[in-house]
Amino acid sequence: MSTLDPKSLVPRTGTIYPPEFAGPLQGRAKRALGDVFGLAQFGVNLTTLAPGSWSAQRHWHEKEDEFVYVVEGEITLIDDAGEHVLKLGMCAGFKAGVANGHHLVNKSSSPATYIEIGTRSAVENSHYPDVDMKAGKIDGKWVMTKKDGTGF
Hints:
Blueprint: H1 19-22, E1 28-32, H2 33-36, E2 42-49, E3 60-61, E4 66-72, E5 74-79, E6 82-87, E7 91-94, E8 103-105, E9 112-119, E10 124-128, E11 133-138, E12 141-145
Antiparallel strand pairs: 1-2, 2-9, 3-10, 4-7, 4-9, 5-6, 5-8, 10-11, 11-12
């Protein structure tokens, strides 16, 4: 397959976060566009956030770059420098290894949609500055733990 109507994909609405950190992500719907084409070096998602919904807990990656581009609506990027409103056609990027915790929040009254593109490393560590959680990826599989390494 070389073409796709993204609306034909059933969106993922769940998260691998433990329940105590998953609540703000309700209303997030991801369509894994890159997976359909078998892309292995980077991921591409078309993500819609309902009003009030978050993209993730604030986080940063040691090895994986991230890029977002707004295709509908308005979202607020929250990072270590504060809040930044991203409107249609605006973008943001996050370089691997830079300890700048970030996430997107839909503070508007309408759904917002963006494309997210990120590196796919077989091994990765993600840090969550606001909550007692960290993520480790080994052989492409994520494992969530508390910051001290104990399980949930």
